[in-house]
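My main concern about presentation is that the manuscript never shows what a single data entry looks like. An entry of this sort, consisting of the sequence and the corresponding backbone structure tokens, reads as follows:
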Amino acid sequence: MKTIALVTGASGGLGREFARLLCAEPVDEVWAVARGEQKLNALRGELGDKVVVLAMDLTQPDAIQKLAERLHQHGVRVQYLVNNAGLARMAPCQSFDPAEISETVTLNCTVPAQLCNICLPYMAPGSRILTLSSAASFQPMAYLALYAASKVFERYYTRALHLELKGTGITATTVCPGWVKTDLLWQTHDGKPVHYSGLAEAGPVAAKALRDAKRGRAMSVFGWYAAYLRLEAKLLPTGGIMAMWAHGAAPYVKE
């Protein structure tokens, strides 16, 4: 029986780093899922034949069923499931049309829950689920309202799942970094560099998340900035935190 790791959003950023790290793990294959086949093929060229390219759009109605059928046909053991795929855009709430709202909620919320359910029957003691939430889940965030709210779902769902799995030897870890240097972040605004407090490289974030998952932790928080945001959300009134964030974010909002 083959042992696999399944990574969504594997073509870049954190997903790419997870794929790289998992290729060094004792698994037979790393199933790399993303929309862009060209980038996935480049990833396979870099990391080797252990990478299995699965180019698909997980927001499409039949995508999860296709993955479920593939798991059944190959009769694999899922050692790692990394729910990394997601959508984010900083903008006022009213600038999102219904289609974008639906796509974001589907990819950020529905898909991770569905993937957990189709993978769990193929997991065994020692298997790990990692779901990428965010420090944005610690408080409501104006201009990132849809993204932050979807990350709350991922954090709560994964922590509850972790408790439900107690005693099975399978764990679920919610990963909550702050700003991570990926293609999702724009680098300049009006010709000036954008400053991100506590900006982290994707590699160390993924490495810590994997270590925390192996230790059976329910949450992985990377870096001082994310830890500060978590503590701030516990100690300060929500309204005050929201106002400070909105004031700082307003100049960078993209319509």
The longest strand covers residues 77-83. The chain has a mean pLDDT of 92. The chain has eight helices and nine strands.
